[in-house]
Amino acid sequence: MNPIRIPSPAKLNLFLHITGRRQDGYHELQTIFALIDLYDYLSFEYTVQDHIEVKGLQQVEQQHNLIYRAAQLLLPYRKTTQGCSITLEKHIPMGAGLGGGSSNAATTLLVLNKLWQCGLDQSQLLDLAIQLGADVPIFIYGQNAWAEGIGEIITPITDLPEKRYLILKPDCFISTQSLFSQKLLTRNSKPTKFAAYQQNPSDFGNNFEAIARTLYPEVEQAFQYLNQYGKVRLTGTGACVFVEIDCDADTDVMLTHAPYPGYVANSLTSSPVLDIVQSL
Question: Annotated catalytic, 11?
């Protein structure tokens, strides 16, 4: 089999509220996941040897590699003895709040479910996805969505307006665990509805923004730069920040003068992974 090369999209959180904390310590969230056309690429190839090989992410130990862990979860269901070699071309920055690792894990589940003839339906894949992380299920759905719970209660959104975004990646690594441990973090935002967001999206923010801007000067610098172009938002727990831009905006000038590396991305209505997997 020739390698099959699959795009693995990023996401933005258009807002992110913490609405409470569960007895098991996990936080209840509300957010909108918006898929964008910034991609990693994964190439899948059968191997004669019965093993899983992941190339392109040497800096991550195997037991922490979400691609490897996703493949491992499918082993009990496969109907073939062939292994798989997976090569990652990394374009989505790591530790950025863009969901690159989660997307890679979901892409692996979707593709190997087909290649290994596992026969799992979407519900079964979602059960595996949540074991890998709260952001993985959205990429199994492959649609923009309103999400609640710890991110696993998903309601697809079919009418998000098409947008273009300028995204900056500040030169810092933000520890999600550290942000969650901050005493000043707002954990009791009032639960809301998608209809309220549609009426006044500018009223919806990210509970992690103030703390990230205070603790990480690089994030504050990125906010200050993008402020000239519109309302700036933090995605996930960061470190990436983004702003909506016009289709005719001079992004070359914007990126040239930006204090950190940046990306221009367009919104997606659905993940291209779904159609590709259907054709396998």
Answer: yes
Assess whether pLDDT exceeds 90 at residue 38.
Answer: yes
CATH class of 164-266: alpha beta
Enter the tokens of residue 177.
């665990």
Indicate where the chain has its CATH 3.30.230.10 domain(s): 4-158+273-279
Of the listed 114, 121, 127, 135, which one is catalytic? Answer: 135
Integer Cα distance of 131 and 116 in angstroms: 20
Query: Global pTM?
Result: 0.95
> Which positions make up the binding site?
93-103
Model confidence over 99-137: pLDDT tens digits?
A: 999 999 999 999 999 999 999 999 999 999 999 998 999
Identify the active-site residue in 11, 114, 127, 248.
11
Active site residue 79: no
Could you name the CATH architecture of 4-158+273-279?
A: 2-Layer Sandwich (3.30)
Distance CA 8, CA 130 (A): 18
Q: Beta partners for 55? A: 87
Please list the residue range(s) of the chain that carry CATH number 3.30.70.890: 164-266
Instruction: Quote the mean pLDDT of the chain.
Output: 94
User: In whole angstroms, what separates CA 140 from the centre of its chain?
Assistant: 11
What type of residue is 42? L
What torsion, rounded to 10 degrees, do the Cα atoms 215, 217, 221, 222 define?
A: -60
List residues forming the annotated binding site for ATP: 93-103
Phi-psi region of 105 (alpha: psi -120 to 50; beta: other; left: phi over 0): alpha
Going by their DSSP bridges, the two strands 4-21 and 27-47 should be labelled as antiparallel
